[in-house]
Write a structure and sequence with these properties.
- The protein is α+β, with helices and mostly antiparallel strands.
- It folds into two domains: 7-120, NADH Oxidase, CATH 3.40.109; 136-303, NADH Oxidase (3-Layer(aba) Sandwich), CATH 3.40.109.10.
- The chain has ten helices and eleven strands.
- It has a five-stranded mixed β-sheet.
- Helix 2 crosses helix 3 (110-118) and helix 2 (58-78) packs across helix 7 (246-265).
- The mean pLDDT is 95.
- It binds flavin mononucleotide (FMN).
- Flavin mononucleotide binds next to helix 2 and strand 9.
- Flavin mononucleotide (FMN) is lined by residues 21-25, 60, 63-64, 123-124, 126, 199, 203, 217, 271-275, 311.
- This is Nitroreductase.
- GO terms for molecular function: oxidoreductase activity.
Length: 323
């Protein structure tokens, strides 16, 4: 018997997919059922936030669609039919990022159930974290999560290394901020009013101050509580892949989501920092600084934070296409 996914599978999978992170919460995805397979497609009608000079805007789209694909895999596994995934299955249709077909039915593994359960809770936390150190066990689980998806996560520890990464991030941020289009785009994607996309000002983090080790994207203007500076030595992680092809970037997206969900499940907060990825010279300096072969795809700040709120998403009905 040929197994196919049906509409109910699609809807459950899409409800999970849309919770994925995306650059400025731009949600560059669409989903459909075609011949019993679920497809993750690029929504080419959506405005794409500008990225740094020399990095293709596709990078951000591929990461976001990869993360959405990971959520779908979890949702389908928890429904009892894990998916077989093909990335960019049709060379003549580059907007199809992934195609998910039904694999052999089986009960979901406990790890799949646990990660699926935390999807609605995961969100970026751009506030200062508490100084409590992340345990060795949690660090190990985060790096394992990246490896399980074919990526790597290099944790940056030690004052000198953390400060060096902070300097690289500031240097990239200065380069990006010189571009009026980039600044206008951040303002355009910052939402003061309720909206189904973009970054709500409440999620934006406090106004930057000169002593900050890392540059925040200025989405909001939350006043900083007195004495509530950012942690002096955050746990930083650089997520990377063996290469920088479209396949690597979609892989990075899946790995990013697995790392973030693993962290959420362990009670950790995280924020993403992509300025050092978006400026090619800085990305190369970052690669050399962490002494890894391959391509850095994202920088993460990980720690313990006060609980925040998930940000809005477009409705499932707004992102599903008729077959
Ligand atoms: C490719 C990519 C790059 C991102 N870069 C940054 C960044 O530089 N700074 C930041 O605060 N968040 C960054 N984010 C996080 C998004 O802003 C965030 O995922 C989105 O606003 C949705 O919010 P949520 O993560 O709380 O669900 C990035 C996310 C992706 C997928």
């Amino acid at each position: 018997m040929i197994r196919t996914f049906v509409d109910a599978d699609l809807r459950t999978a899409v409800a999970a997919a849309v919770r994925a992170p995306s650059l400025h919460n731009s949600q560059p995805w669409r989903f459909r059922l075609r011949d019993g397979a679920i497809e993750v497609r690029v929504d080419s009608s959506r405005p794409v936030p500008s990225t740094g000079p020399g990095i293709a805007a596709d990078w951000a789209v591929n990461i976001a669609c990869g993360a959405a694909t990971f959520n779908m895999r979890l949702a389908l596994a928890v429904r009892g039919t894990p998916a077989r995934v093909r990335l960019r299955p049709y060379p003549e249709e580059p907007d199809v990022i992934a195609s998910l077909t039904p694999g052999t039915p089986r009960p979901a593994a406990p790890a799949e159930q646990i990660l699926f359960a935390v999807i609605p809770r995961r969100h970026s936390n751009r506030l200062p974290f508490w100084p409590d150190p992340v345990t060795g066990h949690s660090r190990w689980r985060l790096t394992e999560a990246a490896q399980a998806e074919g990526a790597w996560l290099e944790l940056v520890t030690g004052t000198a290394a953390v400060e060096a990464l902070g300097q690289l991030a500031h240097s990239a941020n200065r380069t990006l901020s010189r571009d009026p289009q980039y600044r206008a785009d951040i303002a355009r994607w910052t939402r003061q009013e309720q909206a189904p996309d973009g970054v709500p000002a409440f999620a934006g983090g406090p106004i930057a101050e000169p002593q900050d080790l890392l540059p925040q994207r200025p989405f909001g203007e939350l006043p900083r509580a007195p004495g509530r500076d950012f942690e002096p030595e955050p746990l930083l992680g650089v997520l990377g892949t063996p290469g920088d092809t479209v396949f690597d970037q979609i892989t990075a997206g899946q790995a990013l989501q697995r790392v973030l969900l693993t962290g959420t499940e362990a009670g950790l907060a995280a924020s993403m920092l992509s300025q050092p990825i978006e400026v090619p010279t800085v990305r190369e300096q970052l690669r050399q600084a962490i002494r890894r072969a391959g391509s850095p795809q994202m920088v993460l700040r990980i720690g313990f934070g006060q609980p925040g709120w998930p940000t809005p998403r477009r409705d499932v009905d707004d992102v599903i296409d008729a077959p």
